[in-house]
What we know:
Blueprint (H helix, E strand, L loop, with lengths): L5 H5 L1 H4 L14 H14 L2 E6 L1 H7 L9 H4 L8 H7 L1 E9 L4 H4 L2 H18 L4 E3 L3 H9 L3 E3 L1 E4 L9 H8 L2 E5 L24 H13 L2 E3 L5 H10 L5 E5 L14 H9 L3 E4 L3 H4 L1 H19 L4 H13 L6 H15 L4 E3 L20 H10 L4 H25 L2
Parallel strand pairs: 1-2, 2-5, 3-4, 5-6, 6-7, 8-9, 9-10
Helix pairs in contact: 3-18, 15-16, 17-18
Amino acid sequence: MKKISFLLAVIIVACQPKPTEQTVEKELTDEQLMAKADSLAQKFIITDGHVDLPYRLKESGFDIETDSDEILSVEKGDFDFKRAVEGGLNAPFMSIYIPASLQKTGGAKELADTLINMVESIAEKFPDKFAVAKSASEVRTHFEAGIISLPMGMENGAPIGDNIDNVAYFKERGISYITLTHSKCNLICDSSYDSERIHNGLSEFGKSVVEEMNRVGIMVDISHVSDSTFYQVMELSKVPAIASHSSCRHFTPGFERNMSDDMIKLLAEKGGVIQINFGSTFLDAKSREVSTHIRDYVDAYEKDPTDTASYNYVQRYTAENPLFTDVKKVADHIDHVVEIAGIDHVGFGSDYDGVGDSLPIGLKDVSAFPNLIFELLKRGYTDADIEKICSKNVFRVWEEVEKFASQNN
């Protein structure tokens, strides 16, 4: 997971921008719209396609017996129970993140099992607050009972290894989607982040993996894959796919990790959904430029702690060139998807606990979903539109994938 360095964290307060006020004539005042947004956040099921809580906990040495407060209300990272309840987040897909390095060293399947065990242990420790969810229907049941669902998606298909039987194995373990790769090409396909394209898309084994995911009922996630991989998945998959945490390349030209307009349109034509990533560098080209510039200076500073010139430069630079975008930019991406593909093909895929300090103003943690709903209300989205974005679009794909599997087994 890419984290912005400690030095940048030190200067966050100095470089945060003020959201620009936007005057929109509506029947309701902003105060009334915010109250409505809070109400809708509690009324509708909210899904989030990608939350990196399990790997964050693993990296911190989390122990369910001694560190339980971190899950409940300590407010470390971007997610805990208290803030999820406040924000109305009912079904955060727990990312079973597998670093690309394990593709060479081994241990990918073992790590996946460890992280799945962790998610299960959270639900077992707090059955009145959390429950693992393996289907959309289970999420609905948990919602009615006032329990937060913990569906799981595996970020990187590396744990499958070269054994196709592992697809069914991870389905049994509760994995509802698999992101085919991460930052490097693997045995399945090429990555958008990797300059080396080994397979020119899907490998022959990767094609078998996609077919097997269709068969057993696991959603295919095309976030992180190369463009050629995406188009091959669209041709091969018999059910809709998702992009669990991607944004629109329209706003970040040249950033292949995001989706082009043509890709978004085709994903929609095939019935799929793009879930918008909240990271500022996914949302705004200027944020990407500033982040890259800062990283160069931060690296230089950290190599020589006595060099205060770099530190001072970064402070001055970020004062003039804010790193963070704001919640309005996330709404811009949603607007763009709706404009080119329709209201039925967009959702939330925050990447909370995965994009470090680059989250936009107004969406700094899981308590902030009402701020985004407020912005959508200001732009004229109806209650029905917002419910689709919150969960109904993703549920539709999830259930189509499940239905196809049930009819073909």
